[in-house]
Fold:
Amino acid sequence: MPGNKVANEGVICRLFWYNQHMNREQFRIACEKELKYIQVQERKLQKQAMASEKTWKSTLESVIPEKVHISLKAAFATAFTIIFERGVDVIEKTYNKESLMREFEAKDTAVDEIRTRRELRRFRSNAAKSRKWKSIITTAEGVGLGVLGIGLPDIVLFIGFVLQSVYELALKYGYDYNKPEERILILKMMAAAIQKREKWVESDLEVNELLMTHPVPQPDEIQEQIAETADVFALDMLVLKFIQGLPVLGVVGGLGNPIYYSKIMEYIQLKYHKRYLLEKKEA
Structure:
């Protein structure tokens, strides 16, 4: 009968709405649980950043000539300017951009269709997969140049390698690193990752705000941030790069590369994953 047909269609519509609502609610809960994991990791990074500076490092910093610090700042500024501003085309030759974009689309579709925390964790795990072996490469590169007492040229190689990894990670999360708003976010995340104490807290708050607001910066803002990030790297890596410039003893300085690489990439991946979760939760 027509009346029964209409009633049945109404029941089906309500069931469909209910299932869709429940799926959205369950996925929202899954995103929140994964965000709690991110918060725990962020607290661990903050605790590390708030720890007191090693005494030996502070002592060495106090005796390193000011001209060495100035040279190091200039080297980092040059490395960031050359690689960040003009090195994208070269970096993109080291990976398959289209393949990484297709990989993101496939994994993102799986998240949308399966809608479970397990799939979100799998997404996170896949994004971090290449970090360990890349850390080994930074060790070999840093130690190799350290044996020869080569410190300043290593800076260009190190920054290039970090940016390559960051660009790949951005693609794995579906973000275009060529956009001005993404470029300044990357610079701010790199600086925040190695800041200490109150500066870490301040920088981290700024990064968290940028994750969702995406303001488009003016060209001079990017240049200012390049200089600021270069200064942060020069200040924090002063001792290691100074030591790396000494023959044989430079091995010790070179061993700092994988430590900094891991610290930077761990921070940036957490932030990209957090941004992805926040966007999925609100979608």
Summary: Residues 5-22, 139-151, 248-254 have pLDDT under 50 and may be disordered.
